Amino acid sequence: MPNGHLAVAGEKGVALNGGVSTLRVSGVVNPNDIGPGNIVSSVNMLNARYELGGQGDVSDAATRNWLQRFLTKHMTIW
Question: pTM of whole model > 0.90?
């Protein structure tokens, strides 16, 4: 970037019970915050964006069906 900051992105996949969960992160980093091994703490990222996605049984079990989404949105107990 013109001010010397760096746009960074990374992705990590984890296999679990026949499925894969993927964490994606992107943001802007000051080069002075980069440590040994090119490691940057997430608290030092500006405009950080995190995405969690997955495929397989674990992801399917975590997804609500249309009825669950409707009831959660429109039916309150208190």
Answer: no
